[in-house]
Known about the structure:
Helices cover 40% and strands 15% of the residues. By secondary structure, it is α/β, with parallel strands linked by helices. The protein is globular, with a radius of gyration of 14 Å. The model has no long low-confidence stretch (mean pLDDT 88).
Amino acid sequence: MLEIRNILLAEDNPMDIELTIEALKDCNLANRIVSVTDGAEALEYLNYQGKYADRPKGNPVVILLDIKMPRLNGIEVLEAIRGNDALKNLPVVMLTSSREEPDLKKCYALGVNAYVVKPVDFRDFIEAARHIGIFWALLNE
Length: 141
């Protein structure tokens, strides 16, 4: 039987969290979406620490990671993921408002799987999140 793994969403903007979750739900994905609000919490989830110490075993099918977050930013989280043998092969998609070339280059140098700039328009944002969900949760192997 095929295991349905979680999607980890690391995002500090409540509106973007809500929009992303709604867009993913619109795809009728069976995956549970786990939302964390900063980079340190994302690593706690991935490493079974803090309030996630007793979470069920297993890595997410994909991590959707914002760059500009408190405590640890998305680039620092990506660096920690790629430096951890147990996590380094996880698909990571930067879902960010940053169009800065240094951010893009740094993320690809660290091995990000995709870099998606959040559209400003509501409908475009929903559509982008839906496409990400369909590809990473259903089509990608």
